[in-house]
Amino acid sequence: MSFMGIGLVDPILPAISHELDATPGQTMLLFTSYLFITGLAMFFTGWVSSRIGTRRTLLVGLALIVLFACLAGLSGSVGEIIGYRAGWGLGNALFISTALAAIVGAASGGSGQAVILYEAALGVGMAVGPLLGGVLGSLSWRGPFFGTAALMLVGFVAILVLLRDRRGAAPADRATGAPVDHVSLLAGFRALRDPALRTLALTALFYNFAFFTLLAYSPYPLEAAAARAGTEFGAHELGLVFFGWGLALAVTSVLVAPVLTRRLGLRPVLFGMLALLTAGMAVLAVGTGSVAVLTTTIIVCGLFLGVLNTALTETVMEATELPRSVASSTYSGVRFIGGAVAPAVAGGIADTLGAGAPYGVAVGALLVSMLVLSAGGRHLAAVGHRPSESAVGEAQAIALGDE
Prior knowledge:
Layout: H1 2-8, H2 13-19, H3 24-52, H4 54-73, H5 78-106, H6 111-137, H7 143-162, H8 187-190, H9 195-217, H10 219-228, H11 235-264, H12 266-286, H13 291-319, H14 324-353, H15 357-375, H16 391-400
Helix pairs in contact: 1-6, 1-7, 2-3, 3-4, 3-5, 3-14, 4-5, 4-7, 5-6, 6-11, 6-16, 9-13, 9-14, 9-15, 11-12, 11-13, 12-13, 12-15, 13-16
């Protein structure tokens, strides 16, 4: 339900532009405010959850999402929605950064099965979100906001009733094995001193620029290409396209990524998928005039994105000796900030240089991500080209940060 909320508003971006008399650049700031606050808050979520507990952190996060999603649905201007999406992002950071630890702690089938369930939920949520957003958005642009609030309210009640009120085991320092009762307020920023984590976080920053260029900007060239062809491409059609994209992402993140990383190793998979995604973005840059080219390429890029998401997370967990909660929060914080930049600049770039230009900039960002990954290779000796031992071992690496 949480990840459905990310893509739920994607199909209604053009509708918001029309209904509230906003430019595409202004409307895409809905993603920027949301992702920037999510990323910034990620640096502090470990500190919060170590003091108030996992369950309370989850509930506070969900409550904030319900509140600000409702307020966004009641808004009368795009500026108000942008502000409420920032509050939504704070709730999202508290929830997502804590959810995996909660699932691992609550699961009876072991951490490996818990992580597989988490990845499956992420992929299905990213797939179904745009589809539901398209259905609700075809009725009113306000529909997806209230839909998100309803979904997260169900999640709030479920956690309130079903999740035990326990803080769980204290996080442990991987280097010493000693328990750590409280995470420092600045632990997330200090983690960037670790060269391996810094390399991977910067790689993800530029990669996520491309990711959210595709997600936040693509509805506009799709709508424009359809208009030139004399057909209508509204919220329902956009929802179907991004349902296909999310479904492709879900399948490869859960089923394909473990096989590839086990056979080839993490770093070769990262370089290969980044190269394929770069090629896909280049096709989008030159194919903005065709609905068929845009639709097909967006969905195919979802295949590469699914593998990249899983492989990058595994690499972060394997490459650093930092506590898992600190490493994952810091990594997520940096990558979400990278995603926040893309929607903020895509509209202006398109107005100045043409519809394909944002995808061209995304190609450059992906090339930079590969250069960063290559330059920091000496800090990733722990992963190198060594294949993972098993699919279960990979899942445990994500869940526990300890292989």
